[in-house]
Amino acid sequence: MKKNSVPIFFTHGFISNRYNFITRNVYLKKILEWNNKLDLSLEFIFATDKETIKSIDMENFKNIKIIETKDYENKGSKLLTENYLHLSSNNYLYELYCLRRYFYALDYCNKNQLKRILLSDSDNIFLPEIKNLLYDNKLLIPFLKCTKKDNIFDNKYRASGGLSIWNKKDLESYCSYLLNSYTKEYERKKLIKYYKNFKFLNIKGGISDMYHLSKWLSINEPYNLINLRNAAKIYKYEFDPSIEENNNSYKTITYFSFNKMGTKTIKKIFIYQTINNSYKYSYSNLLPLTQIQLQGDNKGIIWLISNFNKYKIITKLIIKNNFLYSTMLTISSFRYLLYRLFSKILFIKNS
Predict the structure, then answer these.
(1) Computed over its alpha carbons, how large is the radius of gyration of the chain?
(2) Whole-angstrom Cα distance, residue 191 to residue 128?
(3) pLDDT score, position 277
(4) Which end of the chain lies in a sparser environment, N or C, as judged by fewer CB atoms within 10 Å?
């Protein structure tokens, strides 16, 4: 454990052989390589399943502590699993894992006497500016305030679980809330009612970690809560809530997604060389990013980021030219689709 470190705890759960085949081959190795090279004097923990660990050459990731989630099972996570009620159109194991990871992070805190921890999806790559968000002793979660129009759950907040920074006390409170949601009969009935609303309105998804995080924030309204979107800007940095999120304040690129079979719009990333010959990553507002989340079929952006030093001329050309940028994303989407189709054939006997 590095002195005064707030560890970055990023997780990847086994959903199916097919899912793991896609994630390993499309982006996971590249993201691990990036985070392994980043010198932040922070501890990086990659928490995952036994099969994923077997597929990783651990010698190549000496700056990342790779742990098996099974070793961080506790009474809480087991009780959650036993009582979990799947109310979603998404994969059962996926939704359950998204909840269990909070218990893994809490158990890691308890076993290592930690007071704070950053919890992240496995598709975040981190940049040096992330350090400025770790030591505020605040609960940092990205959220939007709900309007009456988009609030079907009576929640004050709409939160994202892709990246959050916790005090141990707040994490204990959230895990306790999750257990009550599935072990108390009246709370389970509420979940069923909300899911019926989802289905009636023909909305994909359902009761997820984002729903629970939004509900917990709305009920508790923690005094130390700061919107992660705003916290970064205080320090003149930019937090990336999602690479797929449309926002008029950013320069956006439209490309054809083979996965969704239609056009999509995402924010465009720029890479700038600084005076000391290092690089900063930004959107069009020139504020350096704390991290970049590579969601969905846009994994191709990892190529721009990880190969910039190697192929400066090519990557600069792609970044400056909207047509080349959108072409790269379209090719990435096609590659992602091929992996999905190939894995479907490869693992068809297991389904």
Answers:
(1) 20
(2) 40
(3) 66
(4) C
According to DSSP, residue 238 is labeled B
Across 132-136, 144-148, 255-259, 287-291, least confident range: 144-148
Domain with CATH 3.90.550 in the chain: 8-234
Contact present, 75 and 88 (Cβ < 8 Å): no
CA angle 42, 48, 51 (to 5 degrees): 140
* Model pLDDT, residue 99: 95
Average pLDDT, rounded, for the chain: 84
How far apart are alpha carbons 139 and 166 in whole angstroms? 5
| Per-residue pLDDT at 1 | 47
pLDDT band for position 186 (50/70/90)? Answer: very high
For 254, list phi and psi in degrees, rounded to 5.
Answer: -100, 135
Torsion sign over Cα 5, 10, 226, 241: positive
The position carrying tokens 């069009």 is 284
> Which residue is it, tokens 């939004």?
214
Residue with the larger pLDDT of the pair 44 and 152? 44
Position 261 scores a pLDDT of: 86
Q: Is the pLDDT of residue 301 over 90?
A: no
Enter the tokens of residue 348: 């068809």
**Residue 149, amino acid:** K
What class, spelled out in words, does domain 8-234 have in CATH?
alpha beta
Helices (H), the chain: 17-23, 29-37, 50-55, 75-83, 92-111, 168-183, 185-200, 209-220, 228-234, 301-306, 312-320, 322-346
Computed from CA positions of residues 217, 221, 225, 227, in that sequence, does the dihedral angle turn out positive or negative? positive
Alpha-carbon distance of 23 to 29, in angstroms, equals 9
Residues contacting residue 197 through CB under 8 Å, at least 6 positions apart: 152, 153
Tokens describing residue 168: 């141990």
Q: Which residues pair with 50 in a beta bridge?
A: none
pLDDT value at residue 144: 76
| The residue type at 278 | S
